[in-house]
Write a structure and sequence with these properties.
It is globular and about 55 Å long. The protein is of the alpha/beta class. The chain has two domains: 2-79 and 170-262, 3-Layer(aba) Sandwich (Rossmann fold), CATH 3.40.50; 91-153, no CATH class. The protein has helices at residues 42-49, 72-78, 95-100, 111-116, 119-138, 154-166, 184-199, 211-217, 235-239, 242-248, and strands at 2-13, 16-27, 31-35, 57-62, 65-66, 80-82, 172-176, 203-207, 220-225, 228-233. Helix content is 35%, strand content 23%. The protein has a six-stranded mixed β-sheet, with helices on both faces. Strands 2-1-4-5 form a four-stranded antiparallel β-sheet, covered by helices on one side.
Length: 269
């Protein structure tokens, strides 16, 4: 069953056409990678489909509904959740508070509940705390729950962002460079977490520059080039495609030689 679909999505910044009619379809339970050379439009695409940018044209459908004009908060409540290239942890708050704050529908946000200190407020806060701590324990951060988020490692911050997203019970989880700035051991750890969640039925689309890691992780690979889909299919078939090799990174596409050509951060309009 199709969970997410974009048809002819376009976005320009002045005279620069960042997205040029992007057609993508994602089925429930898929684990999909999204790659492309610098400036291909990957993050712009994520920003458009998650409501951070308004596309100039095209249609975005999620879970059977047209969500082209929906704001990001509404999409998150519906189950489309994302992370970002740069870590967005709240550095002065604890690791547990960073996860708790993502929970939707806090009774404390209601003036009536807050004023009356209702049972619903206490029960919901207890539920949120329990859920946050369960996630932190599952993903290896339980021992850091009372630690200020600004003091933990870059790898732990990446895992923290995944935990925070999971508080929203995503149907579709869009990860923007989850391996950026972390060591090989943490890449393997994050990959295992993603795979486990996918095995449980969660749908993923992942932007990443670490090509070897992505090819080993995902079931399907999409290549963007100059704002349009260049290739879409089995990861090893895609990275062996001559046109993809030519436009993406030349000889560095060889999976046995590494992915040095994809190490620099993407610079997009």
């Amino acid at each position: 069953m199709t969970l997410f679909e974009t048809s002819g999505v376009e976005k320009s910044f002045g005279g620069l056409r960042a997205l040029d009619g992007v057609d993508v379809s994602i089925d429930e339970g898929e684990l999909v990678g999204l790659i492309g050379p610098n400036g291909a439009g990957k993050t712009t695409y994520f920003n458009c489909v998650t409501g951070l940018l308004e596309p100039d044209g095209g249609t975005i459908r999620f879970d059977g509904e047209d969500v082209t004009d929906k704001p990001s908060a509404e999409l998150a409540r519906a189950g489309m959740v994302r992370t970002f290239q740069l870590s967005r942890t709240l550095k002065s708050m604890t690791v547990r508070e960073n996860v708790q704050i993502a929970a939707m529908d806090h009774p404390g946000e209601s003036a009536i509940h807050a004023f009356r200190q209702t049972d619903a407020l206490y029960e919901n806060e207890e539920r949120i705390t329990e859920r946050a701590e369960d996630l932190l324990d599952r993903f290896g951060l339980g021992h850091l729950k009372d630690t200020t988020a600004g003091t933990i490692s870059g790898g732990d911050r990446r895992i923290l962002e995944i935990c925070r997203g999971l508080m929203l019970d995503p149907k579709l989880f869009l990860l923007d460079e989850p391996f950026a700035g972390v060591n090989e051991a943490t890449v393997e750890e994050i990959s295992k977490y993603i795979k486990d969640l996918n095995d449980e039925g969660m749908t993923f689309v992942i932007i990443e520059h670490g090509l070897r890691e992505l090819v080993q992780l995902v079931d399907r690979l999409i290549v963007l080039h100059e704002g349009a889909v260049l290739a879409d299919g089995d990861p090893r078939d895609v990275v062996s495609d001559e046109e993809v090799i030519n436009v993406y990174m030349g000889n560095a596409m060889d999976l046995d030689e590494g992915d040095e050509g994809a190490e620099s951060a993407e610079s997009e309009a």
